[in-house]
Write a structure and sequence with these properties.
Radius of gyration: 21 Å
CATH class of the largest domain: Alpha Beta
InterPro entries: G_CP_dom, NA-bd_OB-fold, P-loop_NTPase, Ribosome_biogen_GTPase_RsgA, RsgA_GTPase_dom, RsgA_N
Shape: globular
GO cellular component, one term: cytoplasm
Enzyme class: hydrolase
Strand content: 15-25%
Main location: cytoplasm
CATH superfamily of the largest domain: P-loop containing nucleotide triphosphate hydrolases
Number of helices: 8
Strand order of the largest sheet: 10-9-8-11-13-12
Distance between the termini: 45 Å
Structural class: alpha/beta
Number of domains: 3
Largest sheet: 6 strands, mixed
Helix content: 25-40%
Order of helices and strands: EEEEEEEEHEHEHEHHEEHHH
Pfam families: RsgA_GTPase, RsgA_N
Length: 308
């Protein structure tokens, strides 16, 4: 019996790296069920597993067990609405690459990503890319945004990937951790990846070609080792992180500034919409909670109401 780390998933086969850095093509033995969840895939990139060698010549093995997870990320399945899809496991941080211009990442999307990360108890970081495209007014707006999010406990970095600006800070951020990198198309995520890990683009292209063989590319992730004990997970699906497993009444728990006030509302089940004696609404009116954050919260609660 061997232990290994799942480096890539294609839905039915998994690349598992053993303690000697050897890769094995493994499949599951039987069916695994995830307690409390209906999932379309039982194993995620980042999972630690035990496996038996099936054919040493062919480098194939059979996964016999999944070791306990520290955490995991899921999103709603594209095809099965009542199911979740596992994206990654045992993650140290979730990083979102955003841009304020060309294209503009909405504050609602940023907040939804942060709430999703909070719900999975995974620290989140924001990287504001394309500094070279900002004028003075936009730089001032970005500085205000970064100050807001940093006051809530989220680290923020400013980069221009194509010019190498801020890359030292990014490398420092990644060192010694397992990180998930996400971002809308066009924000420069690929440029950032290429800048911090030259040669990754070729490997990413190979993954895309591999995944196109009769499967959905958006559901698969791959983990890259950038340095010893430093891993980066790139998964297109992570940008679609939703709140499918979150009850509307729980959403405020994942806003740090609201969480601090939850015991101060008149009603213990206050949803901070139109209830009297709401400490959260009072904080918004007094400017202690940013209106943009409160708007994002209302949007998420509304989305929950519509979905249910």
């Amino acid at each position: 019996m061997k232990q290994g780390l799942v480096m890539r998933s294609t839905g039915s086969w998994y690349d598992v790296r053993d303690s000697g850095s050897h890769l094995w093509q493994c499949r599951l033995k039987g069916k695994f069920k995830m307690k409390g969840f209906k999932v379309t895939n039982p194993i995620a990139v980042g999972d630690r597993v035990t496996f038996e060698i099936e054919d040493e010549t062919e480098n194939t093995g059979i996964i016999t067990d999944i070791l306990p997870r520290e955490n995991y990320l899921v999103r709603q399945s594209v095809h099965k609405t009542a199911h979740a899809h596992l994206l990654a496991a045992n993650v140290d941080q979730a990083i979102l690459v955003v841009t304020l211009y060309f294209p503009r990442t909405s504050l609602g999307f940023i907040d939804r990503f942060l709430v999703s990360a909070e719900s999975f108890r995974i620290p989140a970081v924001l990287i504001f890319n394309k500094q070279d495209l900002l004028d003075d007014a936009m730089r001032e707006f970005q500085a205000e945004l970064m100050a807001l999010y940093e006051s809530l406990g989220y680290r923020c970095l400013a980069t221009t990937a194509t010019a190498g600006e801020g890359l030292d800070q990014v490398n420092e951020l990644l060192m010694g951790k397992v990180s998930v990198l996400s971002g809308h198309s066009g924000v420069g995520k690929s440029s950032l990846l290429n800048a911090i890990a030259p040669g990754l683009a070729l490997r990413t292209k190979e993954v895309s070609t591999f995944a196109n063989k009769g499967v959905h590319t958006t559901t698969f992730a791959e983990m890259f080792e950038l340095a010893p004990d430093t891993y980066l997970i790139d998964s297109p699906g992570i940008k679609e992180l939703g709140l499918s497993d979150t009850e509307a009444v729980e959403i405020s728990h994942y806003f740090p500034e609201m969480r601090e006030l939850l015991n101060e509302c008149r009603y213990h089940n206050c949803q901070h919409i139109n209830e009297p004696g709401c400490a959260v609404k009072e904080a918004v009116e007094e400017g202690q909670i940013a209106m943009s954050r409160f708007d994002s919260y209302l949007s998420m609660v509304g989305a929950q109401d519509n979905r249910r």
